[in-house]
Write a structure and sequence with these properties.
Helices cover 82% and strands 0% of the residues. The protein is elongated. By secondary structure, the chain is mostly helical. Helix 1 runs antiparallel to helix 2, helix 2 crosses helix 3 and helix 6 packs antiparallel against helix 7.
Amino acid sequence: MSLTTPAREHHFVHRIGWLRAAVLGANDGLVSTASLIVGVAAATPDRTSILLAGVAGLVAGAMSMAAGEYVSVSSQSDTERADLETERRALEAAPEVELEELAQIYEGRGVEAGLARQVASQLMNHDSLATHARDELGISDISTARPVQAALTSAVTFSVGAGLPLAAVAIAPVAHTIPVVSLASLASLGLLGAIAARAGGAGMGRAAVRVMFWGALAMAVTAGVGTLFGTIA
């Protein structure tokens, strides 16, 4: 009887860093710019004003996303570095205490006491700081904060997302700006949700419906506000 080699598992967790920023950027670009365009179109039928508002929203939003992602992820990165420095000093000052701490972590995961201490000792001999960073602090190469990557990813994907409703404005008859932008944006949101779910190994249908719902709600609210102010004006 021959034994077949099992298929190698394919995981998606290594994509978390850039995928989160990409999905957030594209979704925000689509929803915020489409909502802005729909709101302005509800208040005025002037295509130039609508396009100007959309372009301004794209530029401001992309810069805001880049700055926000960089600052927030940099804060995470600063915290990680501070924790690693604290752990490095603890390893230098009391290696036996840190060894026991690591062994207790493995015991808590179900490893027998003697074996847990042996594993902890071998891993610390190999790379004590990396071992404690991973198993005590939960910091690894996969989860490490990357501020520049997050900022660039968010800015680029926001611009791409915002460009879709702007393109719809450019080609749609002025009188039909709101329905054309709304339908095009909802379809794009559904596609974005499906692609993001596919990239992350999740179910596509539920993700698509989720982003389409919130996008529709945002555009409906801003259209109502635009109509209100257009009526007052």
